[in-house]
Amino acid sequence: MKIFNLFLRRAGVQPAMVRPSTVSVSRLSVICPRNDMAAVRKRIYTGFEAAGLRVTNLSVDHTDSHETAKACVTISCPPEMRSVLMTQARQVRDYPEVLNVQWERRQRNALN
Protein backbone atom coordinates (compact mmCIF):
# COMPACT_ATOMS: atom_id res chain seq x y z
CA MET A 1 0.00 0.00 0.00
CA LYS A 2 2.91 2.33 0.72
CA ILE A 3 4.19 1.89 -2.83
CA PHE A 4 0.74 2.66 -4.22
CA ASN A 5 0.48 5.80 -2.09
CA LEU A 6 3.95 6.85 -3.25
CA PHE A 7 2.85 6.31 -6.86
CA LEU A 8 -0.25 8.47 -6.33
CA ARG A 9 1.74 11.21 -4.62
CA ARG A 10 4.27 11.31 -7.46
CA ALA A 11 1.44 11.37 -9.99
CA GLY A 12 0.12 14.51 -8.34
CA VAL A 13 -3.02 13.02 -6.81
CA GLN A 14 -3.95 14.66 -3.54
CA PRO A 15 -4.92 12.32 -0.66
CA ALA A 16 -8.33 14.00 -0.32
CA MET A 17 -9.16 13.05 -3.91
CA VAL A 18 -8.71 9.33 -3.29
CA ARG A 19 -11.75 7.79 -1.64
CA PRO A 20 -11.94 4.17 -0.54
CA SER A 21 -14.81 2.20 -1.99
CA THR A 22 -17.61 1.83 0.55
CA VAL A 23 -19.78 -0.50 -1.51
CA SER A 24 -18.96 -4.17 -1.76
CA VAL A 25 -20.22 -6.58 -4.37
CA SER A 26 -21.70 -9.99 -3.54
CA ARG A 27 -22.68 -12.80 -5.89
CA LEU A 28 -25.32 -15.48 -5.49
CA SER A 29 -26.08 -18.52 -7.62
CA VAL A 30 -29.73 -19.50 -7.75
CA ILE A 31 -30.74 -22.82 -9.32
CA CYS A 32 -34.35 -23.47 -10.23
CA PRO A 33 -36.41 -25.25 -12.89
CA ARG A 34 -35.97 -23.62 -16.29
CA ASN A 35 -39.71 -22.94 -16.64
CA ASP A 36 -39.79 -20.99 -13.37
CA MET A 37 -36.70 -18.83 -14.01
CA ALA A 38 -38.63 -15.78 -15.27
CA ALA A 39 -40.79 -15.66 -12.13
CA VAL A 40 -37.76 -16.17 -9.86
CA ARG A 41 -35.84 -13.38 -11.62
CA LYS A 42 -38.75 -10.99 -11.17
CA ARG A 43 -39.06 -11.89 -7.47
CA ILE A 44 -35.31 -11.41 -6.96
CA TYR A 45 -35.33 -7.93 -8.52
CA THR A 46 -38.41 -6.75 -6.66
CA GLY A 47 -37.38 -8.31 -3.33
CA PHE A 48 -33.87 -6.90 -3.30
CA GLU A 49 -35.08 -3.48 -4.47
CA ALA A 50 -37.75 -3.37 -1.75
CA ALA A 51 -35.04 -4.19 0.82
CA GLY A 52 -32.91 -1.27 -0.36
CA LEU A 53 -30.29 -3.32 -2.24
CA ARG A 54 -29.36 -2.93 -5.88
CA VAL A 55 -29.03 -5.89 -8.24
CA THR A 56 -26.29 -4.77 -10.62
CA ASN A 57 -26.33 -7.84 -12.85
CA LEU A 58 -28.33 -11.02 -13.29
CA SER A 59 -27.27 -13.54 -15.89
CA VAL A 60 -28.89 -16.89 -16.61
CA ASP A 61 -26.80 -19.90 -17.56
CA HIS A 62 -27.76 -23.42 -18.49
CA THR A 63 -26.87 -26.22 -16.11
CA ASP A 64 -25.93 -29.80 -16.89
CA SER A 65 -29.56 -30.80 -16.66
CA HIS A 66 -32.02 -29.71 -19.34
CA GLU A 67 -34.71 -29.08 -16.72
CA THR A 68 -32.82 -26.53 -14.59
CA ALA A 69 -31.22 -23.12 -15.05
CA LYS A 70 -28.75 -21.13 -12.95
CA ALA A 71 -29.03 -17.41 -12.30
CA CYS A 72 -25.87 -15.57 -11.21
CA VAL A 73 -26.97 -12.51 -9.26
CA THR A 74 -24.56 -9.64 -8.52
CA ILE A 75 -25.67 -7.34 -5.70
CA SER A 76 -24.17 -3.99 -4.73
CA CYS A 77 -24.28 -3.82 -0.93
CA PRO A 78 -22.79 -1.28 1.49
CA PRO A 79 -21.20 -2.88 4.58
CA GLU A 80 -23.93 -1.63 6.91
CA MET A 81 -26.57 -3.51 4.87
CA ARG A 82 -24.92 -6.98 5.12
CA SER A 83 -27.60 -8.26 7.48
CA VAL A 84 -30.31 -7.18 5.03
CA LEU A 85 -28.44 -8.99 2.24
CA MET A 86 -28.26 -12.18 4.30
CA THR A 87 -31.99 -11.96 5.06
CA GLN A 88 -32.77 -11.52 1.36
CA ALA A 89 -30.59 -14.52 0.46
CA ARG A 90 -32.49 -16.66 2.97
CA GLN A 91 -35.79 -15.48 1.51
CA VAL A 92 -34.65 -16.42 -2.00
CA ARG A 93 -33.65 -19.85 -0.69
CA ASP A 94 -37.18 -20.26 0.72
CA TYR A 95 -38.93 -19.58 -2.60
CA PRO A 96 -40.84 -22.76 -3.51
CA GLU A 97 -39.37 -22.80 -7.05
CA VAL A 98 -35.72 -22.49 -5.95
CA LEU A 99 -33.72 -25.71 -5.66
CA ASN A 100 -30.42 -24.28 -4.39
CA VAL A 101 -28.78 -20.97 -3.43
CA GLN A 102 -25.01 -20.59 -3.04
CA TRP A 103 -22.62 -17.73 -2.51
CA GLU A 104 -20.16 -17.40 -5.39
CA ARG A 105 -16.45 -17.24 -4.78
CA ARG A 106 -14.76 -13.89 -5.22
CA GLN A 107 -12.98 -13.67 -8.50
CA ARG A 108 -9.71 -11.84 -8.49
CA ASN A 109 -8.74 -10.87 -11.98
CA ALA A 110 -5.29 -9.52 -12.57
CA LEU A 111 -5.04 -6.69 -15.03
CA ASN A 112 -1.78 -6.73 -16.93
Give average pLDDT, whole number: 84
In N-to-C order, the SSE pattern is HEHEEHE
List the uncertain runs.
Answer: none
Extended strand count: 4
Alpha-carbon Rg, integer: 18 Å
Which bin fits the share of residues in helices? Answer: 25-40%
In whole angstroms, how far apart are the ends? 18 Å
Sheet/helix structural class: alpha+beta
Number of helices: 3
Major sheet, described briefly?
A: 4 strands, antiparallel
Shape by Cα distribution: elongated
Kindly estimate the percentage of residues that lie in beta strands according to DSSP.
Answer: 25-35%
Strand order of the largest sheet: 2-3-1-4
Structure in a nutshell:
The protein has helices at residues 2-10, 37-50, 82-93, and strands spanning 24-33, 54-62, 68-77, 100-103. With 112 residues, the chain is of the alpha+beta class.
Provide key terms for this protein.
112 residues, alpha+beta, four-stranded antiparallel β-sheet, 3 helices, 31% helix
Explain the overall architecture:
- The longest helix is centred in the middle third of the chain and has 14 residues, at 37-50.
- Helix content is 31%, strand content 29%.
- The chain has helices at 2-10, 37-50, 82-93; strands at 24-33, 54-62, 68-77, 100-103.
- The chain is α+β, with helices and mostly antiparallel strands.
- A four-stranded antiparallel β-sheet has the order 2-3-1-4, with helices on one face.
- The two termini are 18 Å apart.
- It has three helices and four strands; from the N terminus they run αβαββαβ.
- It is elongated, with a radius of gyration of 18 Å.
